[in-house]
Amino acid sequence: MMNSNGGSLAVSSIRQLKNHISVSIWPCSRSRLTVRCAAVRFRPCIDIHKGKVKQIVGSTLKDSDDGTSSLVTNFESDMFPAEYANMYKEDGLTGGHVIMLGADELSRAAAIEALNAYPGGMQVGGGINSDNALSYIKEGASHVIVTSYVFNDGKMDLERLRHLVCMIGKSKLVLDLSCRKKNGKYAIVTDRWQRFSDVFVDEKTLAFLATYADEFLVHGVDVEGKRLGIDEELVALLGNWSPIPVTYAGGVTTMADLETVKEAGKGRVDVTVGSALDIFGGNLAYRDVVAWHERQAMALH
């Protein structure tokens, strides 16, 4: 078994997988693992930093950020988070995510306002743990999105993962497997994407974690927020191996990029667009993306 410099999982996490990979689902969840057959969807987003809707290059955000150092902000909106949520609701867009880019109370209050504006229509992430997960569900989140709480200190914490599933149910959990390339493999990154974990996104990891989660959210961190185009290799990996719904985010800049996600992901990977959208200061028309989303659904009928 190879180590974290070359294998798909470090030894510590492989041992955990060996002990539990035969379990079809965690006993607290009654959901069954299903392979998705549906249209590609556009998943909208609301990123909140210090109570404001912003588009930030995620890899520049640190927990200790004082707002003046290396933080790169692409856009700051005059609209309230709840206004974006209402817009997505009116356009019939579901499964989007509200992300709190910081642990401050202003961001938490703004996120709750967005969830209240669109009950059951959006997921929420950012600082989610076993102490607060249920409170966000009660405020209207369809799911909670978790990364650092489960991939703690760079390792997969199965005890925490099981506890979360027991508390809220598999059907309410989205695992954020945002990743960066490391020695040719995609390593899950945590703590504002600053820390590499010893868990790699591959067929075995996706199959194992799918027994605990309802969906995956995966940011291609190397291209996220930089308008460099998508990480096509990562999208293809997700399309090939994710047994549950998965949303890719990172680098979408043009309508052609949406089609590339659709093709590379074999029609099985949903997509989020952030800083490229005109509603976030970019050049890609939000209305064009919504129209593209609607065409995907119509193509199934």
Automatic annotation (TrEMBL):
Tell me where in or outside the cell this protein is found.
Plastid, Chloroplast
Q: Record's Pfam families? A: His_biosynth
| Cross-referenced InterPro entries | Aldolase_TIM, His6/HISN3, His_biosynth, Isoase_HisA-like, RibuloseP-bd_barrel
Task: List the Gene Ontology MF annotations in alphabetical order.
Answer: 1-(5-phosphoribosyl)-5-[(5-phosphoribosylamino)methylideneamino]imidazole-4-carboxamide isomerase activity
**Enzyme Commission code(s) on record:** 5.3.1.16
- What metabolic or biological pathway is this protein involved in? Amino-acid biosynthesis; L-histidine biosynthesis; L-histidine from 5-phospho-alpha-D-ribose 1-diphosphate: step 4/9
Q: Which cofactor does it need?
A: Na(+)
Keywords carried by this UniProt record:
Amino-acid biosynthesis, Chloroplast, Histidine biosynthesis, Isomerase, Plastid, Sodium
Q: Which reaction does it catalyse?
A: 1-(5-phospho-beta-D-ribosyl)-5-[(5-phospho-beta-D-ribosylamino)methylideneamino]imidazole-4-carboxamide = 5-[(5-phospho-1-deoxy-D-ribulos-1-ylimino)methylamino]-1-(5-phospho-beta-D-ribosyl)imidazole-4-carboxamide
SUPFAM superfamilies xrefs: Ribulose-phoshate binding barrel
According to its UniProt entry, one GO biological process term is: L-tryptophan biosynthetic process
What is the top EC class of this enzyme, as a single word? isomerase
Q: Name one GO cellular component term.
A: chloroplast
Q: Which protein family is named in the record?
A: Belongs to the HisA/HisF family.
Q: What is this protein called?
A: 1-(5-phosphoribosyl)-5-[(5-phosphoribosylamino)methylideneamino] imidazole-4-carboxamide isomerase HISN3, chloroplastic
Q: What is the lineage of its organism?
A: Eukaryota, Viridiplantae, Streptophyta, Embryophyta, Tracheophyta
